[in-house]
Amino acid sequence: MFNKKEFKKREKDRNKHIITIHDKDGIRQVTMGYFAKRLFWLIILIIIIVLSLSFLYTKYLEDSFIELQSIHKNTEIEIAKLKLQQKEIITYTNKLKSIIDTKEKQKEHLQNTIGSLGEELENTRNILGINDDGFKINSNINYSKLSIGEKEVIMHYIPNGKPVPRITRSSGFGWRIHPIYHRRIFHRGLDISVPTGTKVMATANGVVEKVRYNKHTGYGNLLIIKHSYGFRSAYAHLNSISVEVGDYVLKGQVVARSGNTGRSTGPHLHYEVRYLDKILNPNLFIKWNLKNFTDTIKKENRVQWHSVVKATKTIIHTVQQALLLQERKLKER
Q1: CATH classification of 143-322 is 2.70.70.10, yes or no?
Q2: In the beta sheet, which residues pair with residue 177?
Q3: Distance between CA atoms of 247 and 191, rounded to whole angstroms?
């Protein structure tokens, strides 16, 4: 007959797990129950899983490290290539710089040669008394026979005398090494060192032709006065201008104040004297007066002085005739 108690006991005994331990004291047996057995196998499973995950993660780290080593090696190769390219570029750049320096020296030499030839040609023209059209001028005129009145009229309408109270030359007229460009360039006027704000005076009667404000480049603030007989005077690097285009100004009238505007290395006045399309030496005209009237004319032979004298005589004669006519009319009354 089925005995329920014996069945349960056998079932319980069957679920027990006996662990035999051998040591120096002999043999011992440890009996594990059902739940201890399950717990034991669970711990074993967890240990296996942890070891497996550790192995997989270690493998992943090794693969990543190998990949990083490969990337590092490739990067070093690329850096080596770039350094080689940089070296080649530097070599090529130095070669280009050498070529450019050579070309600049050739250009400067050519400019100097052209400048010297131009200066020699200009000197030859001055010596021969030939104008730009190739005609000899001032050949048969005795300027010393001009009357004081005729000379004074001419000197009221052609630039002469000082544009500022005191003349201290900082750079003369003609070829020079430019203080900013550091190469040989023709200087079209006279640079006069004066403090900023010095009075600038018109050197002859005339009409204001140009007023240009430009503080940072070129001539800076510029004033040009148009005089009679085709003459002009120019005043550059000004701090301020007190006249406007169209104003009639008289010789000695203050028209501006000196400054340091435009392409300038210090406060000064750049002064030019022009005749038609020619740039004249302003030194001659600054020193020009009644005493050296004829000598100055002979030195500056690019001006059609005979036309100036003829026009002056005509003007004076016309004025004299008008005054005589007016005097007769007054007498008749």
Answers
A1: yes
A2: 184
A3: 25
Count Cα atoms within 13 angstroms, Cβ side, for 208.
22
| Beta carbons of 19 and 29 less than 8 angstroms apart | yes
- 43 is written with which tokens? 């711990």
Task: Tell me the two tokens of residue 222.
Answer: 């510029």
Residues 6+ apart with CB under 8 A from 243: 208, 211, 223, 249, 255, 256
pLDDT per position as a tens digit, 95-118: 888 898 888 888 777 766 665 555
Q: Which residues contact 239 (CB under 8 A, 6 or more apart)?
A: 196, 197, 221, 256, 257, 258, 259, 260, 261
Rg of the chain on CA atoms, in Å: 52
Q: Please check whether residue 286 is in contact with residue 280, taking contact to mean a CB–CB distance below 8 angstroms.
A: no
> How confident is the model over 190-243, as pLDDT tens digits?
999 999 999 999 999 999 999 999 888 788 999 999 999 999 999 999 999 999
> What distance in Å separates the CA atoms of residue 242 and residue 202, rounded to the nearest whole number?
12
Q: DSSP labels for 175-206? A: EEE-TTT-SEEEE-SEEEE--TT-EEE-SSSE
- The sign of the CA dihedral 83, 84, 85, 86 is positive
- Among 22, 39, 20, which Cα is nearest to 30's? 20
Give the 3-state DSSP-derived string for 47-66, with helices as H, strands as E and coil as C.
HHHHHHHHHHHHHHHHHHHH
Distance of alpha carbon 152 from alpha carbon 149, whole angstroms: 5
Tell me the backbone φ, ψ of residue 239, rounded to 5 degrees: -85, -40
Written as six digits, the tokens of 144 are 């010393």
Length of the chain counted residue by residue: 333
CA distance 88 to 174: 46
Residue 75: HSE in the Cβ half-sphere, 13 Å Cα cutoff? 6
Number of H helices, E strands in the chain: 6, 14
